[in-house]
Specification:
Order of helices and strands: HEEHEEEHEEEEEH
Oligomer: single chain
Helix content: 10-25%
CATH class: Alpha Beta
Shape: globular
Strand order of the largest sheet: 3-4-5-6-7-8
CATH architecture: Alpha-Beta Complex
Largest sheet: 6 strands, mixed
Strand content: 25-35%
Number of strands: 10
């Protein structure tokens, strides 16, 4: 006797379907062709075009405050860019909230800064914390020397140093309001208590 079996066919899982990774060159060609619109909204991370989270006032204001403090500490010969891409390789062009780079703004009219140009990248996280933790891998792989991840809800900062060029940083410190944070390349320190005190309760 024979039996007929009906085997259900599973519907494809949309979260595990193959995805095409984009390179930075492809993204910039799409911008030039008008396929993508230039401006805030998308970030290239490991080949994925990721929609950036809207910034609330505490996030945006704190990033500008950090930029101001860093420029005061660094003095001439450095520039602090806000929400502008850095070149982290062919598949990643993250846009940190602040990037401290060597040189002047006109030095970056034809290219984005690389890790060799950069002293520090800074992300300010609120709703974007999981993605900004992912960026640690991207920055470490590209050898950005130092990465600060501020958590404005917890009033803390993760300080990443000594990138291995593969996927992680050799030194990761958690600092809070009782600490002072050394600014790379200078003898200056940021008073974290004074910075966090400016955030709304």
């Amino acid at each position: 006797m024979s039996y007929a079996f009906t085997v259900p066919v599973a519907s494809p899982d949309p979260f595990h379907e193959p995805r095409r990774k984009f390179t930075a060159d492809e993204v910039y060609r799409m911008l030039d062709a008008g396929i993508l619109e230039e401006g805030p909204g998308l970030e290239l991370l490991e080949g994925d075009l990721v929609v950036m989270s809207p910034q609330g006032a505490p996030h945006a204001g704190f990033a500008e405050l950090l930029r101001e403090r860093l420029l005061q500490a660094l003095g001439p010969g450095h520039n602090a860019r806000t929400h502008a891409p850095v070149d982290a390789g062919p598949y990643s062009q993250p846009e940190p909230d602040v990037a401290v780079v060597r040189g002047r703004p006109e030095d970056y009219l034809t290219r984005h800064p690389t890790a060799a140009d950069t002293l520090l990248v800074v992300e300010v996280a609120r709703s974007s914390l999981p993605r900004d933790r992912r960026k640690a891998r991207i920055y470490a792989q590209a050898r950005f020397p130092e990465y600060w991840l501020f958590d404005v809800e917890q009033r803390s900062v993760l300080v990443h140093r000594d990138p291995d060029g593969v996927s992680s940083y050799g030194q990761v410190l958690t600092l809070g309001a009782a600490d002072r944070l050394a600014v790379p390349g200078t003898p200056a320190e940021l008073d974290l208590a004074a910075l966090f005190a400016l955030l709304p309760a």
